[in-house]
């Protein structure tokens, strides 16, 4: 459970810091974003080292994003991608926390709906638009990062199926 809080706190902090950096790019803020998130991804890789290889791959690619951002390679695009990803992570980790704290199916269903909508909006719609607007990055050393994008689409689909199954299993008279 403590990991969910750490994950949530990192996503919230990274979202806020990256948003401020988008508004006002400042060297100290860039270093802060880099070191906080770099430390987070390394410690999380350590915690998941014997688990899902896709999660480890995702974190390693996230470290690549941070390094490219830090050295200024497609910095404007990468900080926006990072911001969208971390905002979407807030709802993922928030939903995990809610699952552990509440038994009320209405709260859980609402949390699942918000998780799907917000995650899909940021990870699929906004990132797709950013990639369309900046299609040239696909032909750069950043192209392996498309794996994260594909993983996001897959996860959005997984969230949809889970939400569909949750709604299907409910008795609607219970909700009202």
Largest sheet properties: none
**Estimated share of beta-strand residues:** under 5%
**Coarse shape:** globular
Strand segment count: 0
List SSEs in N-to-C order: HHHHHHH
Determine the fraction of residues in helical runs and give it as a percent range: over 70%
Distinct helical segment count: 7
Overall average pLDDT? 91
Termini separation: 31 Å
Category from helices, strands and their pairing: mainly alpha
Total separate domains: 1
Low-confidence stretches: none
Work out the radius of gyration: 17 Å
What does this structure look like?
The protein has 176 residues and is mainly α. The chain has one domain. Helix content is 84%, strand content 0%. The chain has 7 helices and no strands. It is globular, with a radius of gyration of 17 Å. It starts with a helix and ends with a helix. The mean pLDDT is 91.
Topology (elements, then pairings):
Layout: H1 2-23, H2 27-48, H3 53-71, H4 75-101, H5 105-133, H6 146-169, H7 172-175
Question: What are the key terms here?
Answer:
84% helix; mainly alpha; single chain; 176 residues; globular
Would you summarize the structure shown here?
By secondary structure, the chain is mostly helical.
């Amino acid at each position: 459970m403590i990991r969910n809080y750490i994950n949530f706190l990192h996503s919230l902090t990274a979202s806020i810091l990256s948003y401020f950096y988008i508004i006002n790019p400042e060297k100290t803020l860039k270093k802060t974003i880099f070191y906080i998130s770099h430390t987070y991804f390394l410690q999380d890789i350590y915690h998941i080292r014997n688990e899902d290889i896709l999660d480890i791959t995702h974190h390693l690619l996230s470290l690549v994003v941070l390094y490219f951002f830090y050295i200024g390679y497609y910095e404007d695009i990468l900080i926006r991608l990072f911001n969208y990803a971390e905002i979407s992570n807030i709802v993922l980790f928030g939903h995990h926390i809610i699952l552990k704290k509440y038994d009320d199916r209405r709260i859980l269903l609402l949390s699942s709906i918000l998780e799907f909508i917000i995650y899909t909006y940021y990870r699929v719609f906004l990132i797709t638009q950013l990639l369309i607007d900046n299609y040239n990055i696909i032909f750069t050393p950043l192209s392996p990062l498309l794996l994260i994008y594909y993983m996001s689409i897959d996860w959005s689909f997984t969230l949809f199926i889970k939400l569909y199954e949750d709604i299907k299993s409910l008795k609607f008279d219970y909700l009202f």
